Amino acid sequence: MKKIKIQFLGTCACDYSPKLENEFKKKFDFDARRSSALLVEDTILIDCGEHTLDSLDILGIDYNQITDILITHTHDDHFNEKHIEKIAKNRHVPLRLWLREDAEISDISNTELIKMKPFEKYELSNGLFVSPLISNHDPKAFPQHFLLEKDDKKIFYGCDGAWFLTDTYNYLNNKNLDLMILDATVGDYEGDYRMSEHNSIPMIRLMLPSLKNNHTINKKTKIVLSHIAPSLHKSHSETVEIAKGFGAEVAYDGLIMEL
After folding, report:
1. pTM value > 0.85
2. How confident is the model over 206-256, as pLDDT tens digits?
3. Which residues span the domain enclosing 240?
4. CATH number (domain holding residue 182)
């Protein structure tokens, strides 16, 4: 069975790495994080923020191969209308742009806007399906997480959002995910004020046993941390060692995974 390919185009929270000032056009670096975005099967883009076009350019990815853009929420570091318009500009078929059903945005030329209802399943390209899940984040930004499915593979993408809201937690019961990508904005310390909107590493440590008990994940599930704030974390290599302690990996810009 063919594997699903994903690539992290950016893994940062909104406090972009200072290294970008000097290395913005250079190859990816473990400690130089750009605005969070994920490319799935080379055609599905999750989020399009400040640095996404630069990431695509660095990787030599043709904008025209992108068929769909899924938006987790409308904060600037995840949703840049001008950059989406550039991706859509020269297409013969309109770019499909997916947002939560109540999201309010301006018209973007050469795009087909699709409003998503929570917990419904939608067909993308390349045999992929997506289900939007309710996210615990700024309600004014129309936040959502995503469950991606292809054949028997299941991927959860939950960047920007803290803990799990009840309906989302219950929806994920017995999914036995192959990959779970979690928001890890805050580092390995307690008492951060962002706990209502972002995860810290101690919060993730608490969640994982419960997610195993309800079979959202199992011993084979890959747990990957992303949406990392450099100002709130130690270096990438130090964070990797911390994450190993609870069976997780740490994403970096350019990372490719195949499931």
Report:
1. yes
2. 999 999 999 999 999 999 999 999 999 999 999 999 999 999 999 999 999
3. 5-258
4. 3.60.15.10
